[in-house]
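Researcher: Here's the sequence for the chain we discussed earlier.
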Amino acid sequence: MGVFVMSSEIAAPARDLFAWHQSPDALQRLIPPWERVTIEQRPASLGHGDEAILRMHVGPMSFRWVARHRDFIDRGDEGGEFTDEQMSGPFRRWVHRHLVRSTGAGQSVLEDRIEYELPMGRLGEWLAGWHVRRQLRRMFEYRHRVTRAAVESPQGTGSGGDR
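Model: Thanks. This is the structure I predict for it:
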């Protein structure tokens, strides 16, 4: 099983950072421009059981990725967390925990933790593990930059308009 973790310090209150993840356009804004992904269904919320359905295009192939939300906890000024779990998609297993916590004085930490298994077990890891790790790093560096720009903006939570 692979584990990927990325944490970033964000100069914004944890409440605002967590609220931004709940904004209607957050999912679209977090998809890197180099990824060929279409949102087929936005989740109604980050609450238990709500699903996001994405259509991913890789070369000539296309597949659906269904992620179900669970474990939503809003801690107010202290932040919050939620998890999405792949119900169907490219991985054998994918569990993505999003954690936002306050570090005090209008500062917070955003942490993404992903536990995943590639198809075909050890062979899949041997063939594609290095590529998946590199892509995760690149994608989450982008996602954290977008999130930082949105919530550290002078407009507050930055949930409106693209940056």
